[in-house]
Specification:
With 458 residues, the protein is α/β, with parallel strands linked by helices. The protein folds into two domains: 243 residues, Glycogen Phosphorylase B (Rossmann fold, 3-Layer(aba) Sandwich), CATH 3.40.50.2000; 171 residues, Rossmann fold. Helices cover 42% and strands 14% of the residues. It has 18 helices and 15 strands. The strands form three sheets. Strands 3-2-1-4-5-8-9 form a seven-stranded parallel sheet. The protein has a six-stranded parallel sheet with strand order 12-11-10-13-14-15, with helices on both faces. α3 packs parallel to α4, α3 packs parallel to α7 and α11 crosses α16. The protein is globular.
Length: 458
C-alpha cells in the first residue's frame, strides 16, 4: 500500500537506534531543526523514553515545548536485558516497523501537521521502507564516524573477497583499509566481532548486511562529522553530507536525551581546580570492567597524583581498592553521570581517558583536549586510530600479557601525554578546524541550512 504525499507544513519524525550514543546526537539534531521552525516528533522505544523523561525530571527541562517526545514498543519484555544487543537488534527489527507505521498513521489521522519527513538512525534502514510507503522524504543519519559506516556498507564485499566467512568471522588476522587515508582496521576489531558472543556477532553481521539494502532507500544521508575530521572517508562516500559536530551545548546551551541524571555539581568542583590540571575519565553507556581492571584503573588514577573526575555509572558493579576513596578524597571526584560537553569545555580539564565512542571523540576534539584511548567495542577502535594515528591528539593504552591495562601503564601514559606540548598545540588546532565547520559560512553550517531548506521544500 502506498500513501500519497500531501502539501503540508514540514513535520519531521526522528528515530534513533535504542542506545544512549544514538539518542543524544539525534536529539541534538532535533533541537537544531526545531530551532529552525520545523515541527519535530522524536520517537524512542518505550524503555529509552522512560529513562530520558526520568533523567530530565529534576532539571526543569522544557524540551517537550519544542519537540514531541513519543514512544513505541521494542518487542522486548520490561525485565529483559537491553544490553544484549543481538536480541535487541533482532527483536526490534521484527516489531518496530509495524509500530512505527501505526504511529505515523495515528499522527496523520489527526488531520493536521502530517509527517512529511523521516530522519532515521543509519542502523534502522527498515524505517526507510516505512517512510517510502507513506511517500515522505527519507533521511539516514550517521551517528558514528563515516569511516565506520563506510565499512559497514562493504560487509558483503568482505565476504566476496574472502576476508570473512558468511557469519562475519575473519579467516585470518590482518589489517584492512577501504581507501588511502582512511583508518585501517584489524580484523579482530571489526565492529561485530567485538560485540557479545558468537551468536550475537552472527546476528549483528546479518543485520548489517540486511541494513544496506533498506538504507539505500534514503534520499539523503547526513553525518555528525566534518570534512576537516574525515576527508578521505567522505571522499569515499561523496554523496553523504556533513552537518557536525552537532554539539548542542555550544549551539543551543544544553543537551537532552541522557539515560541517567547528570551531576552538575561536578562543574562547581572543577571551578576549584587549577587550569588544565584535571584528568577526566568516562567510558560511555556500555563499557564494563571486571574487578581487576576496575581496581587497576583506580590505582592508576591515584598514582598520577593529579586531580581527576571519574564517571562511574550507577549500573556498574564496583569495588574500590581498600582505602582508595579516603586517600583521594581531596583531589578525586567520582560521579554517576556528567554533563560531558560542558565538562570538556571547562578550563580545568587537561585530558580525557575515553572509550572513544564517536560522540565522546568529537566532543573532546571540539574542546581541544588530548585523549588516552581505551576502546571497548564496535566503532571505537576506528575512532582510536583517528585520534592517535591521524589527528595525533592522543595516546593508546596498552594491555599487558593478561589483557589488563595496569596502573603503571596509566600513570606513565598520563605523564607522557601531559608533557607533550606539540600534541597540546595540535589539539587546539584541530579544535579550531572542527568549530569553524559549524560557524557561519563553514561547510557543515552550509550543509545544514541546505538540509533545512530541502525539508521545507525551498
Amino acid at each position: 500500500m502506498v500513501f500519497e504525499r500531501k502539501m503540508v507544513k514540514p513535520h519531521v519524525l526522528v528515530l534513533p537506534y535504542p542506545a544512549q550514543g544514538h539518542v543524544i546526537p539525534l536529539m541534538e539534531l532535533s533541537q537544531c531543526l526545531a530551532n529552525d521552525g520545523i515541527k519535530v516528533t522524536f520517537v524512542n522505544t518505550e524503555f529509552c523514553h522512560q529513562r530520558v523523561v526520568k533523567s530530565m525530571s529534576n532539571k526543569g527541562n522544557h524540551i517537550h515545548e519544542t519537540i514531541d517526545l513519543v514512544s513505541i514498543p521494542d518487542g522486548m519484555e520490561p525485565w529483559e536485558d537491553r544490553s544484549d544487543l543481538g536480541k535487541l537488534t533482532e527483536t526490534s527489527a521484527k516489531v518496530m516497523p509495524g509500530n512505527l507505521e501505526a504511529l505515523i498513521m495515528e499522527i496523520n489521522a489527526k488531520g493536521r501537521d502530517e509527517i512529511t519527513c523521516v530522519v532515521s538512525d543509519y542502523w534502522l534502514g527498515w524505517s526507510m521502507e516505512v517512510a517510502e510507503r507513506f511517500g515522505v522524504k527519507r533521511v539516514g543519519f550517521v551517528p558514528a564516524s563515516v569511516a565506520m559506516s563506510a565499512l559497514s556498507m562493504n560487509v558483503q564485499k568482505l565476504v566476496d573477497d574472502g576476508i570473512v566467512d558468511s557469519n562475519g568471522t575473519p579467516f585470518k588476522k590482518q589489517v584492512i583499509e577501504l581507501a588511502p587515508g582512511m583508518p585501517g582496521i584489524n580484523t579482530t576489531n571489526l565492529a561485530w566481532m567485538t560485540i557479545g558472543d558468537f551468536t550475537t556477532q552472527k546476528i549483528i553481521f546479518q543485520f548489517m548486511k540486511d541494513n544496506i539494502k533498506s538504507i539505500n532507500l534514503a534520499e539523503r544521508v547526513i553525518c555528525n562529522t566534518s570534512h576537516e575530521l574525515e576527508p578521505a572517508a567522505l571522499a569515499y562516500v561523496p554523496n553523504w553530507s556533513t552537518i557536525g559536530p552537532l554539539l548542542a551545548s555550544k549551539r543551543l546551551g544544553s543537551t537532552v536525551g541522557h539515560f541517567w541524571t547528570e551531576d552538575s555539581a561536578c562543574l562547581d568542583w572543577l571551578d576549584e581546580q587549577p587550569p588544565r590540571s584535571v584528568i577526566y575519565v568516562a567510558f560511555g553507556s556500555f563499557t564494563v570492567f571486571d574487578q581487576t581492571q576496575f581496581q587497576e584503573l583506580a590505582l592508576g588514577l591515584e598514582g598520577t597524583n593529579r586531580p581527576f573526575l571519574w564517571v562511574v555509572r550507577e549500573d556498574t558493579a564496583k569495588s574500590y581498592p581498600e582505602g582508595f576513596e579516603q586517600r583521594v578524597e581531596n583531589r578525586g571526584k567520582i560521579v554517576g553521570w556528567a554533563p560531558q560537553q560542558k565538562l570538556l569545555a571547562h578550563p580545568s580539564v587537561s585530558c580525557f581517558v575515553s572509550h572513544c565512542g564517536w560522540n565522546s571523540t568529537i566532543e573532546g576534539v571540539s574542546n581541544g583536549v588530548r585523549f588516552l584511548c581505551w576502546p571497548y567495542f564496535a566503532d571505537q577502535f576506528i575512532d582510536e586510530s583517528y585520534i592517535c594515528d591521524y589527528w595525533r591528539v592522543g595516546l593508546k593504552l596498552d594491555k599487558d600479557e593478561s589483557g589488563i591495562i595496569t596502573q603503571k601503564e596509566i600513570k606513565n601514559k598520563v605523564e607522557q601525554l601531559l608533557s607533550d606540548e606539540i600534541m597540546k598545540r595540535r589539539a587546539f588546532e584541530l579544535q579550531k578546524k572542527a568549530l569553524d565547520c559549524v560557524a557561519e559560512g563553514g561547510s557543515s553550517h552550509k550543509n545544514f541550512q541546505d538540509f533545512v531548506d530541502w525539508i521545507k521544500g525551498k
